[in-house]
Amino acid sequence: MEKLPQPYFWQWLLAMLPSNFIQRYHSQLNPILDSLFACFIYFISIKIGFDSHASVMAVLLYLFSPIFFSSLAIGPRINSITPRLWSEILCNILFICLFIPLSIALPTKIILSILLMNMILLSSKFGIQVLVFLIPISSIISGDYLGILVLAGSIVTATLITKGEFLKALKAQAHHLTQYFKSGLRNRMAISNRNSFTIFIKILKLEVPFREKIEKIIFAAVVTNSYTSVILKFTLVIAVIYFGLQTGPGNLPYSYRFIFYPVVASLILFVVVNINLFLFLGEAERYILHVGYFWIIAIVYLTQMNGINLIGYFLVSFGILYWLIEGFYLKNNQSVKALYQSQNENNLLMEYLNSLTYPINIALYPYHSAGGVWRILYETEHRVYYGITLTDEDRAKVIDFEDKYPYFKIGSLDLMAERFKLNLLILDTRERHAINIVEKSGNWKRLTGIVKNTVLFTNERLK
């Protein structure tokens, strides 16, 4: 099978660590990376002219702004080992290098910027989008086009380093975004209605206890709606906009205007990407996070300039309160407790799969059942059906079986099993309708006594 055209630099770095080490300490890797960046924030803030008090405030705002630590999010930033945090940190450092006057010699600045860009381009698909959109907009706003030239040079060097594989990855990503765009037009994306405020009205109309309604409303506001999510978890964005407009762009000293170039650029992208037509470009707030440092020093600078340092203390205090409330909620919420129990069940399932003496073909319904497709691929020798991350050639083979993500067409299971030689089917226990369909087909035998959070069926026709 043709290899997938993906940027793999981040995975290549992780592969240098023993797999046992990653499995044991994966929950500590991201916090360590975040802590190192917090130290960098302090020293770079001192370097560009802020005093120690302002620099400490910048660090505190980074550590205690909920958007940087909250587990209630689409794709938690801290809890998962993905290129996400890596991309955000490198992108912040890149924009610091490009737009903040640090007395770096131009050749050194160009080389360092190209190095950082290549590390992003070859690690993160979303990071590629950030660079392609944020760099040109920031450059146009600032009137400094070095970033665009460096971006062009980085694409060339990335292509040369990978012997053309990077261009294949770009082509695959463009194809993926095109398909995502078409799915959005048909309202088939998982986030097609992400920013719809009607969901709050629908929740109020549910015939459930009042407490459950409140929980659902809070969850929708914190997780699924981009606007309310930013207001609640990165409140300083509102403060920057307010005090920035109050101060007036013309009243900003020229020597500190560099702070606001990436801020304005990311705000423009945030607004545009939240338009329904452009939701396929990903979570809009992530464009802001990729230049989050600039938003932080913007509010530090504006509050100092206006003599209202209490705003910083309020934002940090609010973040600490949010952290305490979320921690209490996660500790006592039944759904979260069930999630932890489910993780234990997933571990048992991995033990069962590894006990099988030969590789088998597995299908998951939905794709994130049992810890997800990638966990099974990583921790076992088995093959897993996954109709999303595919080459064009392989995508054509599964197009008739794919349903709205994260599902395949369960009614076509027997045909899928025949075509892809599926041995084992794993379904989430909550998918009662799908389980009934499988049981009625007569071609699958239910396995019992292995795990409680998923239902396992073996294909009787492949015995």
What would you note in describing this structure?
This protein is mainly alpha-helical and 463 residues long. It folds into two domains: 324 residues, no CATH class; 126 residues, Rossmann fold (3-Layer(aba) Sandwich). It is built from 22 helices and five strands. A five-stranded mixed sheet has the order 2-1-3-5-4, sandwiched between helices. Helix 19 links the parallel strand 1 and strand 2. The longest helix is centred in the N-terminal third of the chain and has 29 residues. The two termini are 25 Å apart.
Write a short abstract of this structure.
63% of the residues lie in helices and 5% in strands.
Question: Would you spell out the secondary-structure blueprint of this structure?
Answer:
Layout: H1 9-14, H2 19-47, H3 52-64, H4 66-69, H5 83-99, H6 106-121, H7 125-142, H8 146-161, H9 165-185, H10 198-204, H11 210-224, H12 226-233, H13 236-247, H14 260-273, H15 285-289, H16 292-305, H17 310-332, H18 334-355, E1 361-365, H19 373-379, E2 383-384, H20 392-398, H21 413-420, E3 424-428, H22 432-441, E4 444-447, E5 454-459
Parallel strand pairs: 1-2, 1-3
Antiparallel strand pairs: 3-5, 4-5
Helix pairs in contact: 2-3, 3-16, 3-17, 5-6, 5-7, 6-8, 7-8, 7-14, 10-11, 11-12, 13-16
